[in-house]
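This protein record is not my work; I was only asked to verify it. Take the sequence as given and treat only the tokens as open to question. I have pasted the whole thing underneath without changing anything:
***
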Amino acid sequence: MPCYEIDGLRPVVHPSAFVHPDAVLIGDVIVGARCYVAPLASLRGDFGRIILEQGSNLQDNCVMHGFPNLDTIVEEDGHIGHAAVLHGCRIGRNALVGMNAVVMDNAIVGDSAVVAACAFVKADMVVPPRMLAAGIPAKVVRELTVQEMDWKVDGTRCYHELTVRSLATLKPCVPLAEPEANRPKFDLPPGIVPLVDLKRGK
């Protein structure tokens, strides 16, 4: 992975974490146990500290950065969707930040809360635990249902499993010119479905 030291501080990655070779880590970055960091994620610890606590995941094209002396933290089992931007904020334990959402300086997303896709969480905003925040700017909309919270836990578990799979089997390869006959699909246990399908009872 591209990993850079600055001013004598270099990133820390726990051996049980998976950081994709195309992610970038700079300076004061701490990636905890069992974390998953996807391709093209940028963790820029050149001003404030960047922390991923154990079991959290940071998906493709995400950015974590912050002002000097302002840590940017994803707590245990936090789940950060594709292309989200976290800047000087704290994401609570088991919380989810949806795809393309932005969470600004000094904002706090509470434990097991959800920030909807494309939401903009303003600086200093507090999203209480187990609540849904959505919109531009984000507003606290309602309490999450048990079904929604269970769905989030299942989704994060899939990333825990992906960390193990990636450490064990992901490697560079030369692509095939065409699909093999009877090309197999992944032999995985039943996974989660989109939340909208779950709510429809599919």
Summary: The mean pLDDT is 95. The two ends are 39 Å apart (CA to CA).
